[in-house]
Amino acid sequence: MRHGKKFNHLGRTASHRKAMLSNMATSLILHKRINTTVAKAKALRTYIEPLLTKSKEDTTHNRRTVFSYLQSKEAVTELFRTVATKISSRNGGYCRIIKTGFRLGDGADTALIELVDFNETYNSGESNKKVTRRSRRSTKKADSAESTSEAVVNETSEVKSENKSDETKE
Predict the structure, then answer these.
(1) pLDDT at residue 37, as a whole number
(2) What is the pTM of this model?
(3) For the stretch 118-149, what's the b/e string if a residue is b when 16 or more beta carbons lie within 10 angstroms of its beta carbon?
(4) What is the rounded CA–CA span in Å between residue 66 and residue 55?
């Protein structure tokens, strides 16, 4: 039974797991996306989300805390300079896991894990959208509904007038 086991041990010792997650987190920060197995991606997400949250406030204490997890000066610099500025407005959910199928060698379930704000194909439409929330329908939908109903009324009246003119000619 697995009572009290909160995280996936990934079939590794504690030191191996810690080193592997640290290396994967460093690669994710530097490259913005990596391919791995689904289990490792889910473990990495729980490992890196608190680090990304700490990077939003650039203090010496936060930098040292993040460095103790990552053990890479380049990754810490990249995280606090470029990544933190992009995720500053986001409240959470900094990573996205996309399942990509099965690996040929052993059939493992693979996934792509990426930083959400660095994918331009998904984020291209968000900059154009309005941020306001409304509970009622907007005027654009109402106007378009009215214009379509008016067009239908106009078409039916034209058809009726054509029918009347056809009847008078006969």
Answers:
(1) 97
(2) 0.71
(3) beeeeeeeeeeeeeeeeeeeeeeeeeeeeeee
(4) 8
